[in-house]
């Protein structure tokens, strides 16, 4: 809708929209404030005093570094798997109509449409039945499963916008399938894949529900945080980590946005 | 396309790659199969396989004396699911999911509407990022933020005190059932956190649906004499509805299955997710846990088929 250029929104609508955005953002700001509080035992507001010492305290906690490193490794591998599988699926679904196509696209969104706890417990009991030990790889397996859909959504949207005639033209000009993929398809879908990959990374980096079921003794960063929420040790240190996590997820979102902003939406919402 | 790339394309390659490429070109079905097989196998085996194995276990039962799983077909686990206490858990989760979904739709619509119809240029980007940032920032961080806010010594109590509204806060907490000793130990608290955490999932599809309403339809509506209110209810809203339903799939499903939020903010009574988590964990009763997971699967199955019929999948 581009007709009402210059038309002002009704005041009630503007107020409701602004109030809604405040509701979304004020809680995040409070996280920042509490990272500087001198009060360690409770969530007293306003903070009795401000200090920077928690940043140093967080820096020296080895358990945080371990959790961070594990999260980065898991997210990288899960994203790589999701990129390959998601792109294949999107290419197939976009290029042809075939029997059961609707069911296949349903299957791809199922891991995010069904509650995460179902994915988690299903995987856990399957690992148990097959006598798999819970390890780094069981976490990756779980994460890749729900990351596929993010890549799939992004790639599918781009495939649909890419004219099939381009591919035919490339073939007519004598390129073989691989050359067409390399010089025509990939440049067209590249930024969508990058965006999908970054979102998948952010999604995996943040995942906690499936991870609680598929992790053994290892703690990813979200698992570390969950433990701190249930049994707090140094509350403000949790805030410092929270700020770090917000910063880390903000950058890929910004990037993904700039990569896909020309008339389509990133991911269309969705863990 | 640059010159170098064009040059490469003209080079005719021989050999194996070319032959593979030709075969794939001549048999599009083979190419299709090669593309779809890996993701399908992954999801089919890892995901569907696990899911079916889990469902199968719901037809087993647990031996009351040894605590071991008896691998014989029985429906007794499902009978147990219909216990008053278990039905209570299911109903509580359903009511919460419905309440959260309705509230999310109510708050999301003005934001989505403003972003789709009035925000331009920089503002549009701002709105989009303002919704995306909370969506993609850590789930736990956002839950944690509310633990800070709702705590008895936290900002809400302080604000109520400064505004001389402590009586109002006390009155809200005194409401039977949904109230409690403090906001962080009440259903109101749980509801607020659910609403906050899932709200962006409602905004994005709604906004996408609103953006797709063609401008000429609105002009046509006005030309035919409709006042803005009529245009809204007869043209815009019906076209935005698939978006709202698509969003509700997320808010509903996510609320139904979450077990972390009610564990951190809320009363000691169980929601569906917590029940499943405890049953498979400390209680070790996998069959009943499996039977419990069938409930959200069935509910979401019904929900998704209705949503599909109303065109919500195109709005995703």
Characterise the protein shown here.
Chain B: It comes from Taklimakanibacter albus. Chain B: This is ABC transporter permease. Chain A: This is ABC transporter permease. The complex is a heterodimer of chains A (271) and B (316). Chain A is mainly α. Chain A has one domain: MetI-like fold, CATH 1.10.3720.10. Chain A contains eleven helices and no strands. In chain A, α3 runs parallel beside α6 (136-161) and α8 packs antiparallel against α11 (235-260). Residues 1-5 and 263-271 of chain A have low confidence and may be disordered. Chain B has helices at 3-10, 15-26, 28-57, 76-81, 84-117, 121-136, 139-150, 155-162, 166-174, 187-211, 215-223, 228-257, 261-264, 272-280, 286-309, and strands at 61-62, 69-70. In chain B, α7 packs across α10 (187-211) and α12 runs antiparallel to α15 (286-309). Chain B folds into two domains: 13-47, no CATH class; 83-315, MetI-like (MetI-like fold), CATH 1.10.3720.10. In chain B, strands 1-2 form a two-stranded antiparallel sheet. The model of chain B is unreliable at 1-7 (pLDDT under 50). By secondary structure, chain B is an all-alpha fold. In chain B, a hairpin with a 6-residue loop joins β1 and β2 (69-70). Chain B is built from 15 helices and two strands. The chains are: A mainly alpha (271), B mainly alpha (316). At the A-B interface, α1, α3, α4, α5 and α6 of A face α1, α2, α3, α5 and α6 of B.
